[in-house]
């Protein structure tokens, strides 16, 4: 017998036995299990089949609380309502699935037995927290309610029991506030205003310093806010509190901030959240109690030291909210030596158990340590690399695993600009804070998330989001900003976590800074900075500068990264080459690990000011004879370009692509010329002479020249130049031009070879559609190559090949390979010609709408369209190698540096990818991921 279960939005069939619970009297009634106690992880694992399934079912937090319970760590008793229950609740119009609530009550009774306390009983009340927890951690994006179970009666009972009215009132007012905001969706401000008002009246800085009476009155005022704003009383029935809190957590899965976060982090929207009901333990029972968050290693640098913050006499949210100045975790050693020693041991045990750096939450209640959460720690790119390498060297993970754990974006960070150290010395340093997320960021100050988003997205401005502290509602602004700056908060504050997650440079806890969001300014040491002013943040050092600092590309010398990439190199099958036109690019590419040049776009050199006049002269020439002189002028330039490339890539292949773009691109635009001609004609007609003072004779001369150019441009005009006289067609049309290029290549190669440089030129013909095109052009050019080598008296190793960037070329690759000795996919043009979408206009035009409306799942100019373009590529590989089994095939479109496209290139058996020098390290890692198969799993 089977039954259907909705899991992650899909219906899957599971054996009914997995869902059967015993219902007394030996009578077995099938019932879906919606609730798992923390000590029931074995059952969850049996049902979910694997640990990943347990995390999908119980959420990361629930799964890990259960796992910590299983390995004997001190976790307060509790249980988890599954993500399946959440998905059904949301799909069924906000109705709990049948039996779920009863199972929650059953589990609650079990906690009562374990703790000896009773939910709702004033004599010894059990209080619980209700926390969200999805499969993938989404810090602070969903809701939590603490201290559930308090009402006037249980509060009085708890005071009698603890003899600590301050503590109980503190819990009670927090519960009402969280209820108001989380369950009843009232804004936080009215509650915060009451607290601020009392703090001001009593002249104290912290809520904890308010008197018992004040806390009691504040609770009353909070209830009034709930009554007035929500139109209903704060519920006094603990069971109603629990029910509503469970529902609120389910709903928070679909809240705006959770949705935005998932969108940015690439988390699917159909996973749902679990709900964890946990016995409350209290860090706010005086100075012998406390609460904190820590990571088992430093997640900014990767160093092996426990890092974090804590507060004495506080509840968890005080630490992450950044509203109170936290103490560094190292101070716990002196303040609470025993719990600290146990905590240190637990951290080690957790790392060993999970084979990963953990981010933990703990509470010390009157000297007793409790673990409230563990999860894999988010980290900066620098820390990710170091931690992966260290864990592999500590033999906790394999080298392969270490490579898998670092994502391409992490590597990208190492190539990101940093501020120029020389310029920093003289820069206007205005303050220093905590360096919680490295990198350099420059932007205009904005004070709220919506402005940050609209300035960045609509107005295309670089912005720095400045806040006293950030909250989950700010995430969309933080993602849009270049960097984040806050006056409060610690290393584990919300701002720090989110910044690290999204790789945004951030400086937090700048105590000298006073942020006035209302007035849209911040002051620091008597200086005011207003919205729109420029600031520069150094997230690596925590420095904040006035104005716009320049940044530089850092040296590529991080020893951990170098080691990790060397491991990746051993794993990957794909070669990684570079698209480089100039020797300096080639040198950088080589430094980053390029194994060849896959594309040198020769026409780029034609645009340089000392060459363009000869290029234009060559284009305007009417006869072959007229073309001889400008081509002779261009030859030495090209020769020296190639000479530099061969020397930089000594021993490695250099693929040089012959001229590709339509010739009119080297001439002024038609519209510009027409405008000039009309203007000159008007100026010549003016009776009072030229307003700019030119004499008519020289004006006539200029006009004649412009008219000549205009006529030439008009004669070359094509309705679709991208589909016109370019690529191989141009070479056939102007053979002397490509012959000059081949001569330059071989003269340079021969000269280098004579000097002992190991040269491997590969001449690449663009835009081939038919084998006869190659037959004509390649035959002619090979002859020229041989002539040059004969003249030079030396032979060099060379190949002639072609780009495959027209569907016909892919479809007839077997015929093309009769001539081409290698293929390189020009996926920019191949995407353009396969989709029939212009590559130059698409990304600013309707394609954006397509992406927004999900008509296309991805931008095909960024990631290869696997089903269409990818299919052509696969066919091209198959056909090409039918003719030439050892045919070398690469890709040199922009996709060569895109990890997902790299995975596809690996899959269809290409030999190498070629990308911009700055993407080389990323491509090395992505190619290793592809080889491991990691990438396919993630798709
Ligand atoms: C391509 O089309 O993918 C390519 C590399 O050539 P270009 O971008 O120069 O047209
Ligand atoms: Mg192209």
Commentary on this structure:
This protein is of the alpha/beta class and 939 residues long. The protein is 47% helix and 18% strand. It has 38 helices and 37 strands. It has an eight-stranded mixed sheet. An eight-stranded parallel barrel has the order 30-31-32-33-34-35-36-37, surrounded by seven helices. The longest helix is centred in the C-terminal third of the chain and has 25 residues, at 624-648. Mean pLDDT is 90; it is low at 1-26 and 935-939. Bound molecules: phosphoenolpyruvate and magnesium ion. Phosphoenolpyruvate (PEP) is lined by residues 599, 601, 660, 805, 826-829, 892-893. Magnesium ion binds next to α33.
What is the topological layout?
Elements: E1 2-7, E2 10-15, E3 20-22, E4 28-30, E5 35-37, H1 41-48, H2 51-70, E6 78-81, H3 83-91, H4 100-115, E7 118-119, E8 125-126, E9 128-134, E10 144-148, H5 152-162, H6 165-183, H7 189-202, H8 212-230, H9 238-252, H10 256-265, E11 273-279, E12 290-295, E13 307-312, H11 316-321, E14 327-328, H12 332-335, H13 337-354, E15 358-365, E16 368-376, H14 381-393, H15 399-405, H16 408-414, E17 418-419, H17 421-426, E18 429-432, E19 434-437, E20 440-446, H18 449-457, E21 463-467, H19 475-480, E22 483-486, H20 494-502, E23 506-508, E24 513-516, E25 521-524, E26 527-530, E27 534-538, E28 543-546, E29 551-552, H21 559-571, E30 575-579, H22 583-591, E31 597-601, H23 603-606, H24 612-620, H25 624-648, E32 653-657, H26 670-685, H27 696-716, H28 728-733, H29 735-754, E33 760-765, H30 771-792, E34 799-804, H31 807-811, H32 813-816, E35 822-825, H33 827-835, H34 846-852, H35 866-883, E36 888-891, H36 899-907, E37 912-915, H37 920-932, H38 934-938
Parallel strand pairs: 7-8, 20-21, 21-22, 22-23, 30-31, 30-37, 31-32, 32-33, 33-34, 34-35, 35-36, 36-37
Antiparallel strand pairs: 1-2, 3-4, 5-6, 6-11, 9-10, 9-11, 12-13, 12-15, 13-14, 15-16, 17-29, 18-28, 19-23, 20-27, 24-25, 25-26, 27-28
């Amino acid at each position: 017998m089977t039954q259907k279960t909705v899991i992650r939005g899909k219906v899957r069939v599971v054996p009914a036995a997995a869902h059967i619970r015993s219902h007394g009297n030996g009578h077995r009634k099938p019932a879906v299990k919606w609730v798992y106690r923390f000590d029931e992880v074995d059952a969850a694992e049996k049902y979910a089949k694997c640990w990943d399934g347990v995390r999908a079912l119980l959420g990361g937090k629930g799964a890990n609380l259960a796992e910590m319970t299983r390995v004997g760590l001190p976790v307060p008793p509790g249980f988890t309502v599954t993500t399946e229950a959440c998905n059904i609740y949301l799909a069924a119009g906000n109705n709990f699935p049948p039996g779920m609530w009863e199972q929650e009550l059953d589990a609650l009774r079990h906690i009562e037995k374990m703790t000896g306390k009773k939910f709702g009983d004033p004599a010894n009340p059990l209080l619980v927290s209700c926390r969200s927890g999805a499969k993938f951690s989404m810090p602070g994006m969903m809701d939590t309610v603490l201290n559930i179970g308090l009402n006037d009666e249980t509060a009085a009972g708890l005071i009698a029991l603890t003899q600590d009215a301050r503590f109980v009132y503190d819990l009670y007012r927090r519960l009402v506030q969280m209820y108001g905001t989380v369950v009843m969706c009232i804004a936080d401000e009215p509650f915060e205003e009451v607290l601020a008002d009392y703090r001001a009246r009593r002249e104290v800085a912290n809520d904890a310093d308010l008197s018992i009476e004040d806390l009691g009155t504040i609770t009353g005022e909070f209830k009034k806010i709930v009554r007035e704003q929500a139109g209903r009383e704060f519920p006094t029935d603990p069971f109603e509190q629990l029910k509503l809190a469970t529902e609120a957590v389910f709903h928070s899965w679909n809240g705006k901030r959770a949705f935005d976060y998932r969108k940015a982090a690439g988390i699917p929207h159909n996973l749902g959240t679990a709900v964890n009901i946990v016995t409350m333990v209290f860090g706010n029972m005086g100075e012998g109690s406390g609460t904190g968050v820590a990571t088992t290693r430093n997640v900014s640098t990767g160093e092996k030291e426990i890092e974090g913050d804590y507060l004495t006499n506080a509840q968890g949210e005080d630490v992450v909210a950044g509203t109170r100045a936290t103490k560094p975790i190292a101070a716990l050693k002196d303040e609470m030596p025993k719990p600290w020693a146990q905590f240190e041991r637990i951290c080690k045990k957790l790392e060993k158990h999970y084979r990963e750096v953990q981010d933990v939450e703990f509470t010390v209640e009157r000297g007793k340590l409790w673990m409230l959460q563990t999860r894999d720690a988010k980290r900066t790119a620098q820390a990710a690399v170091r931690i992966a390498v260290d864990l592999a060297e500590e033999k906790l993970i394999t080298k392969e695993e270490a490579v898998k754990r670092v994502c391409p974006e992490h590597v990208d960070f190492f190539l990101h600009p940093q501020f120029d150290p020389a310029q920093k010395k003289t820069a206007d340093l205005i303050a220093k804070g905590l360096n919680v997320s490295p990198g350099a960021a420059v932007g205009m100050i904005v004070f709220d998330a919506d402005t940050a988003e609209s300035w960045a997205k609509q107005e295309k401005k670089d912005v720095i989001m400045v806040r006293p502290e950030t909250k989950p509602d700010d995430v969309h602004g933080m993602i849009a900003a270049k960097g984040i700056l806050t006056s409060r908060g610690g290393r584990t504050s919300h701002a720090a976590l989110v910044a690290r997650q999204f790789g945004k440079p951030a400086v937090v806890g700048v105590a000298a800074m006073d942020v006035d969001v209302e007035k849209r300014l911040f002051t620091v040491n008597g200086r005011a900075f207003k919205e729109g002013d420029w600031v520069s943040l150094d997230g690596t050092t925590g420095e904040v500068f006035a104005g716009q600092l320049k940044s530089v590309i850092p040296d590529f010398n991080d020893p951990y990264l170098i080691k990790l990439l060397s491991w990746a190199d051993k794993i990957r099958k794909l070669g990684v080459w570079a698209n480089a036109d100039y020797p300096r690019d080639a040198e950088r590419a080589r430094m980053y690990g390029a194994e060849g040049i896959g594309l040198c776009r020769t026409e780029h050199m034609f645009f340089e000011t000392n060459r363009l006049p000869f290029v234009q002269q060559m284009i305007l020439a009417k006869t072959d004879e007229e073309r001889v002189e400008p081509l002779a002028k261009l030859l030495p330039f090209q020769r020296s370009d190639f000479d530099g490339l061969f020397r930089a890539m000594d021993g490695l292949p250099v693929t040089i692509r012959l001229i590709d773009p339509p010739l009119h691109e080297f001439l002024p635009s038609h519209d510009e010329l027409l405008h000039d001609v009309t203007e000159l004609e008007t100026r010549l007609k003016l009776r009072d002479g030229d307003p700019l003072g030119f004499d008519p004779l020289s004006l006539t001369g200029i006009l004649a020249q412009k008219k000549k150019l205009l006529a030439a441009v008009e004669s070359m005009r094509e309705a679709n130049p991208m589909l016109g006289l370019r690529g191989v067609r141009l070479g056939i049309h102007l053979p002397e031009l490509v012959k000059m290029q081949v001569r330059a290549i071989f003269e340079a190669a021969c000269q280098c070879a004579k000097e002992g440089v190991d040269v491997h030129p590969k001449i690449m013909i663009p835009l081939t559609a038919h084998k006869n095109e190659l037959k004509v052009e390649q035959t002619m050019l090979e002859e020229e190559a041989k002539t040059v080598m004969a003249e030079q008296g030396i032979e060099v190793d060379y190949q002639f090949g072609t780009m495959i960037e027209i569907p016909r070329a892919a479809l007839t690759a077997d015929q093309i390979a009769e001539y081409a000795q290698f293929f390189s996919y020009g996926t920019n043009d191949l995407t353009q010609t396969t989709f029939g979408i212009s590559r130059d206009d698409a990304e600013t035009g309707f394609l954006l709408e397509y992406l927004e409306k999900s008509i296309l799942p991805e931008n095909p100019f960024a990631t290869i369209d696997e089903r269409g373009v990818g299919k052509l590529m696969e066919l091209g590989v198959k056909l090409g190698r039918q003719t030439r089994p050892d045919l070398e095939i690469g890709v040199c479109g922009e996709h060569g540096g895109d990890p997902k496209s790299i995975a596809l290139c690996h899959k269809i058996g290409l030999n190498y990818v070629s990308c911009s020098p700055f993407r080389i390290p990323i491509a090395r890692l992505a190619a290793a991921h592809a080889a491991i198969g990691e990438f396919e799993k993630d798709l």
